[in-house]
Design a protein that fits this description.
Elements: E1 14-16, E2 31-35, H1 39-49, E3 54-58, E4 70-74, E5 80-84, E6 90-91, H2 95-102, E7 111-114, E8 119-121, E9 126-127, H3 138-146, H4 152-155, H5 160-163, H6 173-178, H7 183-190, H8 194-205, H9 217-229, E10 237-240, H10 244-258, E11 262-264, E12 273-274, E13 280-282, E14 286-288, E15 290-293, H11 297-305, H12 313-320, E16 328-335, E17 346-350, E18 357-360, H13 366-375, E19 378-384, H14 393-407, E20 416-424, E21 448-450, H15 463-481, E22 489-491, H16 499-508
Length: about 525
């Protein structure tokens, strides 16, 4: 067993050692192309380069970071600013992502904690996660006992056998039991109090960019295992204290450059074909011994469709069937006055038509804080997940602002100095019944691998941590082919922490969700 990384405080967290090498070391240094410079691609590049592999990263956008990239803009008042696709929470149980960032920032000085983040329902109920014990089951017990969202008269109606599904999580077994139904089906079967369902469940399901009826119940159960019921790291998370490029990606790319990694931005890869001197050819970019496909869902679908020699028919069909989640909107406003002093840096919302959260960037990000200090204003960001496929951008922006002003009434009197809006639809959708068909890291070609938050890993990871984990798993797969040592990963426990609850769940399960 290797020594535990600094971020792994849960005594039940599990080490995931690399498999034994399956090939022999090549005489010459192998060269790998990584298509995609997001979290998954940078993790794969890091894993390969640290073992002496030559790596070239190709990113189609003008900067690395994927869905966490940032780009320069100039505001109407002449101020320089960095825009991005919005707030992201770096939870303490993101072991592999945090380990990746520590390569360039050993103390994670670029991250600052948000000790509390309220969740508020339009009808008034409000929850917060500060002061809860970190270790299950005491965290859940204290939340239920102290939260106004869990009134005792309503808790008596809870369907205990169905609720035990949330305690009986193991990977990949949870997918065999629950992937065929939706998160909404599970929540309705459990019969949680309505306010608890909105505040403690739907707020989190929508973080997967999908409404509960379009999200697998297995993903819901896995999410609660990862963040709450299976991990003793707690629900506290960190956020970058500066725009994403300066806080995260510039240092990491600098570290990779020191390892010899070549990173090309504004360099889209259109297709992958057979090489003449090496195994693969990326037209216009050279030839390589291996390829990591770390693009987003639309990107990997298009790339595989344009590369008829990749994989076999069955695998290509699985890639083609990957689905994108509905559109989401990020609206960031630079305002001429501050929000009220007691406003938290992050607020989750429920019960509103589209508003999912509000963040006040000048509470934690240095660039926004300096602009607010200099102008007397504030920088506020709004998120709306799972919008209709045919939504009208202008109408959605207006609706989102109206809802935010209902939550923070002082916004109604503010003058907008400038605003930026990002409407995208490139996140993966984890729809009911799709897990079995989802491609994993390995492909029919031993030197072609996949990485990204859409890739099946058979580990209890999600969102950014799934991206980082899949990237390192992709690197380990190729390293094994070349007879090189892989990297140890870490994960929250791969099954529920409470053995009696797991046993009871299997005794009472029956056909509740059949």
């Amino acid at each position: 067993m290797v020594s535990r990384p600094a971020d792994v405080r849960d005594r039940r967290a599990e080490e995931v050692p690399p498999g034994p090498p399956t090939g022999t070391r090549p005489r010459e240094t192998p060269e790998a192309a990584v298509v995609g410079g997001g979290i998954a691609g940078l993790a794969a590049a890091c894993g390969l380069a640290e073992r002496g592999v030559g790596v070239t990263v190709f990113e189609r956008e003008g900067s690395p970071g994927g869905r966490l990239r940032g780009w320069d803009t100039v505001l109407a008042d002449g101020s320089p600013a960095v825009m991005s696709r919005g707030f992201h929470a770096f939870f303490r149980q993101y072991y592999n992502l945090r380990g990746l960032l520590r390569r360039a920032d050993p103390d994670l000085g670029s991250l600052v904690p948000l000790a509390d983040y309220p969740l508020v329902h339009r009808d008034g109920p409000r929850d917060r996660f500060s002061g809860l014990p970190a270790t299950p089951p005491w965290n859940a017990a204290v939340l239920a006992a102290t939260s106004p969202s869990f009134p005792l008269r309503d808790l008596a109606r809870v369907n205990l056998p169905a609720a035990l599904h949330l305690l009986d999580v193991d990977v990949p077994g949870v997918y065999e039991r629950l992937d065929h139904v939706s998160a909404q089906d599970l929540l309705e079967a459990v019969r949680f109090p309505p306010t608890a369902r909105h505040l403690a469940f739907e707020v989190f399901t929508r973080s997967f960019f999908a409404a509960p009826e379009h999200l697998s119940a297995a993903e819901l159960a896995l999410m609660f295992h990862l963040y709450f019921l299976g991990s003793a790291e707690g629900l506290v998370f960190d956020v970058p204290n500066a725009p994403f490029p300066r806080a995260l990606w510039d240092p990491l790319v600098g570290y990779l450059t020191g390892l010899g990694v070549k990173t090309h931005t504004a360099a889209p890869v259109e297709r992958v074909g057979p090489g003449t001197g090496r195994r693969f050819s990326l037209p216009g970019h050279g030839e390589f011994d291996a390829v990591v496909l770390a693009a987003d869902v639309p990107g990997v679908r298009a790339l595989v469709a344009a590369s008829p020699g990749l994989g076999d028919a069955a695998w290509r069909g699985r890639v083609a069937r990957l689905e994108s989640a509905p559109p989401f909107l990020v609206s960031r406003y630079w305002l001429d006055r501050p929000v009220r002093p007691h406003r938290q840096a992050f607020l989750g919302t429920a019960g509103y038509p589209t508003l999912d959260n509000v963040s006040v960037l000048d509470r934690y990000e240095d660039q926004a804080r300096e602009w607010a200090r200099r102008t007397g204003g504030s920088v506020v960001e709004l998120h709306a997940y799972a919008l209709p496929e045919d939504c009208d951008p202008d109408r959605e922006r207006a609706r989102l602002w109206e809802q935010a002003a209902a939550v923070y009434p002082e916004l109604a009197a503010a003058r907008v100095v400038d605003a930026r809006h990002e409407l995208r639809a490139d996140c993966p959708l984890f729809a009911p019944g799709t897990h079995r068909d989802r491609p994993g890291v390995a492909t029919p070609d031993p030197f072609l691998v996949l990485a990204g938050d859409h890739v099946r890993t058979d580990l209890p990871v999600a969102l950014m941590e799934r991206a980082a984990t899949s990237g390192l798993l992709a690197a380990n797969t190729l390293l094994s082919r070349w007879g090189l040592p892989g990297h140890t990963l870490w994960t929250v426990p791969r099954r529920g922490r409470l053995a009696p609850a797991r046993t009871l769940a299997r005794l009472t399960r029956g056909d509740i969700l059949q």
